[in-house]
Amino acid sequence: MGLGKRLAKARERAGFKTQKDAAKAVGISLSVLNRYEKEVNRPDWEMLAQIAKVYDVSVDYLVGNIDTFNWPTKKDEQNSDLDIDVANFLVLVPSAEDREELVPVSEELREKIAIAVKEYRRERKAAIQRGEWPPTGNGRS
């Protein structure tokens, strides 16, 4: 994926409905942003940094060095580990009856856990779309 597509994807992720709104937030004209996204022109490094700041993504994402919007932070890694632990728990619980180290849970409790995990993921996805994830900062210096 080229710079233009990454700029457009990051703009949409940041919640800008139009190029005009994004251009205003970045401090450039609509035609300049349009030319960046169509890869007619390339922004200089200072402009890339400004766009990355407004879109809440890393410059590394915009130029294709990484495929995630931001470098993962320690908190992201901890939350990812939590997701993996919860997923592993949900996978292991059905066969808990034949495992001495695990305590079987009722189907009702399993359903409550599944609902809680789905709600957490829904709220996290919404926070990411609003640019509010991770909750304690964006992990960039």
Walk me through the topology.
Layout: H1 3-13, H2 19-26, H3 30-37, H4 45-55, H5 59-63, H6 74-92, H7 107-129
Helix pairs in contact: 2-3
Walkthrough of the structure:
By secondary structure, this protein is an all-alpha fold. Helix content is 60%, strand content 0%. It has seven helices and no strands. The protein has helices at 3-13, 19-26, 30-37, 45-55, 59-63, 74-92, 107-129. It is elongated and about 60 Å long. The two termini are 26 Å apart.
- Low-pLDDT ranges: 91-100, 137-141
- Beta-strand percentage? under 5%
Query: C-alpha Rg, in Å?
Result: 20 Å
- Provide the structure class: mainly alpha
Largest sheet: none
The span between the termini is 26 Å
How would you spell out the order of helices and strands?
HHHHHHH
Q: What fraction, in percent, of the residue positions are helical?
A: 55-70%
* C-alpha geometry: elongated
Count all strands and give the number.
0
Number of H- or I-type helical stretches: 7
Mean pLDDT across all amino acids: 75
List the keywords.
141 residues; mainly alpha; 7 helices; elongated; disordered C terminus
Quick overview:
Helices cover 60% and strands 0% of the residues. The chain is elongated, with a radius of gyration of 20 Å. It has helices at residues 3-13, 19-26, 30-37, 45-55, 59-63, 74-92, 107-129.
